[in-house]
C-alpha cells in the first residue's frame, strides 16, 4: 500500500471502474503512538497522533445490498459480495475492514445500503501504523455521512472497535481509531480510554529542532495472532486478582503489595501497564511545560518496560531502538501492538542522517531486511475530501 492518488484522479478512476461518479471521497490517517502501549484496553491513557499517511475511499451507495470493492494497490482484484447475511469472519485481506464497519453500523440499527468502493492508501500495511484502522475510519466516515446516521466520533470509535474485535477477530482497544478519527494537525491526542475524554496536546518537534523518525522494521505482525490476546488475558487476570475493574485502577504505590498476590509473569505484565499509564501522564505534563526535547527518557523507559516486562518487542525493534539511541536520538521506543512493526526515534535534526545510516547498517550486519525510515508529523484526522 504505497500509492497516493489525487482526489480527482481517484474519482475519475472510480467512474471508469463502476461507470458512475462516486458520492464523495473520504480520507482517514494511520497513526503513531508517542507513548501509552497496551494501556487502552486497560481503560488507561494513551498519547498517539494521526500521521500524514492516509487511506482514501471513493464511495457510492447503491439501491441494492451488493458490495463491489477495488483497490489501487492490487491484491484481491474486484471483490464482489452482499451485505445480506453478512457474518463475522467474512471477506479476505483489506476487504474485511469495509465489510466490518458496514456490519457494525447495521448492528447499531443503521440501514446500510450496498456500495461501490475504490480504495487507495499510502499507510504501509503490517508496519504497526494502523493501516487497517485508516481504512475502517475512512469507510465508516463515508457511511456515517451517506446514511445520515450522524454518529459522533465516540460512537464511530466504538463501532470500529466492534468491527475489529468481532468481525475481524482482533481483540484490540480504542487507541488507533481514536487517533484516526479525532487527530488534529500539530497535536497529539491525549485520550482517557475509560471515558473517551480527549485533550489535544501540541506536539511540534520541528520547533524544538527535532524530527520523529519512524523505523519500519518490516517484521510484519497481526493482532489476530495469539501474542496480543495473551497479553490482554494476563492484564484481565491481574485486574481480577487485584479486585479492580481494570488495571487503570491500580496505582504505582500498590505494585509492591501486588507482588505478593500475582505470579511472576502476571506481575510483570501488570507492572508494565501501571508504569506506562504513569509515563503517559508525565509525558503530557512535560510536553506542556518543557516541550518535546524533554520526553526522551520516558520514551526509553517505555521501551525497556515493553521489552522486559510486557515482552512484546523483538530483535529488530530492539536493534532499531538501541542503534538510534547510540547515534544521537534523544529517546526511542517501539510503537503499536508489538511483535514487529515500527519503532520511533526522537532525533535532533542534525543527527537524523547519522541515525538513518547507522540503523540501515546495523540491520545489514545482523542480516535483517532493510528497514524503511521516514519522518512523521501530527496531521488532521478523518475528513471528507469531495
Ligand atoms: C494495537 C491496538 C491498539 C493498542 C495497541 C497497543 O495498535 O490496535 O488498540 O492496544 O496495539 O498499545
Model description:
The chain is 40% helix and 22% strand. It is of the alpha+beta class and 386 residues long. The mean pLDDT is 96. Helix 2 (96-107) packs across helix 3 (131-146) and helix 8 (264-290) packs antiparallel against helix 9. The chain has helices at residues 7-18, 96-107, 131-146, 153-168, 175-182, 226-242, 255-258, 264-290, 296-310, 315-326, 352-366, and strands at 24-35, 45-61, 66-71, 79-82, 115-121, 187-192, 197-202, 210-216, 331-335, 342-348, 372-376, 383-384. The chain binds alpha-D-galactopyranose. The site of alpha-D-galactopyranose has 11 residues, from helix 5. Alpha-D-galactopyranose (GLA) binds next to helix 5.
Q: What share of residues is helical? A: 25-40%
Associated small molecules: alpha-D-galactopyranose
Topology pattern, helix = H, strand = E? HEEEEHEHHHEEEHHHHHEEHEE
* SS class: alpha+beta
How many domains? The number is 2
Strand content: 15-25%
Give the total of beta strands.
12
Arithmetic mean pLDDT? 96
* CATH fold description of the largest domain: Ribosomal Protein S5, domain 2
Rg to the nearest angstrom? 21 Å
Number of separate helices: 11
**CATH level 1 class label of the largest domain:** Alpha Beta
Profile the largest sheet: 8 strands, mixed
Distance between the termini: 22 Å
Low-confidence stretches: none
> Which CATH architecture of the largest domain would you pick?
2-Layer Sandwich
Q: What gross morphology would you assign? A: globular
Domain Galactokinase N-terminal: 13-60
Domain GHMP kinase C-terminal: 285-362
Enzyme class: transferase
Keywords: ATP-binding, Carbohydrate metabolism, Cytoplasm, Galactose metabolism, Kinase, Magnesium, Metal-binding, Nucleotide-binding, Transferase
